[in-house]
Design a protein that fits this description.
Pfam families: BrxA
CATH superfamily of one domain: uncharacterized protein from magnetospirillum magneticum domain
Protein name: DUF1819 family protein
Shape: globular
Strand content: under 5%
Organism: Parahaliea aestuarii
CATH architecture of one domain: Orthogonal Bundle
Amino acid sequence: MSNDKYLMSFTVGGLFHRESLLLSSQFFELGDWDIVRKRVTAENLLQARTVSALKRSCREAVFRLRTLTEKELEFLVEGSHQEQGYLLWIAICRRYKFVAEFAVEVLRESFLTLKNDLTYEDFDSFFNRKSEWHLELEKITPATRGKLRQVLFRMLREADLLTAGNMIQAAMLSPGLLELIYQANRGEVLYFPVFESELTEVKR
């Protein structure tokens, strides 16, 4: 059994692309995430239908954005739509070890072995394997497990790493994003379906 418990609270929303850009812009204006959350909640800047949904979405998106450095946040605001999606995927992997390990052990491994699609069975197999070492996963109900699977696949599609038909899409990491990744943690390249030999060399 692992003492390093998985955090499994990613059942809210998806990639939060639009919301993350708005929150990041607010952060550069206000300089404090707590103040950002208060303003966004008070003024419903995320245009949520209910107060509870607003608070959940804002809290979850901010948790992820807090994993990014200020330089990465600047890149998020200024980057292309695809670069933004990739950076948000990195933030999710930093926040959730379970997702990071799925990205490396299932998504990327499938890509490297020329398995073109990703299935719900792949998720279930991974979940069951991890349950042997993480007893907290055994406490998750079938309904919640299904929601986790659904949201994870949604995030992958929104990050442009899966097609609508769940076919794996090779990541097209730009030199600018690669440089950011290498500065923070070169190993985070492994969160993406990509052959390292095809990556653009970045001078450090």
